[in-house]
Amino acid sequence: MYRLSALARNNVPKYLARNYAKDIKFGPEVRKLMLEGVDILADAVAVTMGPKGRNVILEQSWGSPKITKDGVTVAKGIELADKFQNIGAKLVQDVANNTNDEAGDGTTTATVLARAIAKEGFEKIIKGANPVEIRRGVMLAVDTVKTHLSTLSKKVESADEIAQVATISANGDTSIGKLISSAMEKVGKDGVITVKDGKTLEDELEIIE
Predict the structure, then answer these.
(1) CATH 1.10.560.10 residue ranges in the chain?
(2) Where does it localize (predicted)?
(3) Around Cβ 38, how many Cβ atoms within 10 Å?
(4) Which of 15, 145, 158, 200 has a CA between 20 and 30 Å from the CA of residue 93?
(5) What's the pLDDT score for residue 169?
(6) Closest CA relative to residue 44, chosen from 26, 61, 25, 57
(7) Distances from the Cα of 107 to the Cαs of 42, 69, 112, 138, 173, in angstroms?
């Protein structure tokens, strides 16, 4: 990047000066647009939820369209024309991305929950609630839910249980689920599993010791 001195900038013809205009909006108008963006993205992601979830087709800038049932992949593939709607969509994209980074799964559920929290939060703000207090209440609720979920959680230990969990993550592909279970059995819970494109039509497991 090159920077011009103040004297040089003053001597640059105005038609050469590069300015970036910013649209600035406040209040209910922008909240409405942001929620519309949240809804558009969440609606697209929500159809992938659960064992009966449907596939989504994403247009790509190169190559053939991509067909996926992965929530975070759908979220990443959405870009809205309206910049304020897109801001709302990007906020929910961040939720999906963070969930994927932290847990590796559950991105669709996180997106649906984020939409519900955003809608309820904005409604309360319109009625005069303090946004800081709303956030504090949400965090208290999160702690309560986490405590309750921990009492419901179950350790996954056997090869069959691992295969079941992996099959769900693989969109019901039992062969992939069994392959992942075999890999976990070989490397253990602290081992490293990497996925690479193969050169054959069959899925293969290679152990490197």
Answers:
(1) 27-130
(2) Mitochondrion
(3) 26
(4) 145
(5) 76
(6) 57
(7) 11, 11, 9, 19, 19
Vertex 157 angle, CA 156 and 162, to 5°: 65
Strand locations in 22-95, DSSP E? 56-58, 66-68
Count CB neighbours of 17 within 10 A: 8
The sign of the dihedral angle between the CA atoms of 153, 159, 160, 166 is positive
Identify the architecture of domain 27-130 in CATH: Orthogonal Bundle (1.10)
Task: Look up tokens 């490293």; give the residue.
Answer: 192
pLDDT of res. 9: 52
Predicted pLDDT of residue 155: 86
- Of residues 132, 170, 43, the one with CA closest to residue 180: 170
CB 114 within 8 A of CB 92: yes
Alpha-carbon distances of 142 from 55, 117, 177, rounded to whole Å: 30, 12, 31
Residues of the chain below pLDDT 50:
1, 16-17
Q: DSSP assignment, residue 42?
A: H
Beta bridge partners of 68: 56
CATH 3.30.260.10 at 154-209, yes or no: yes
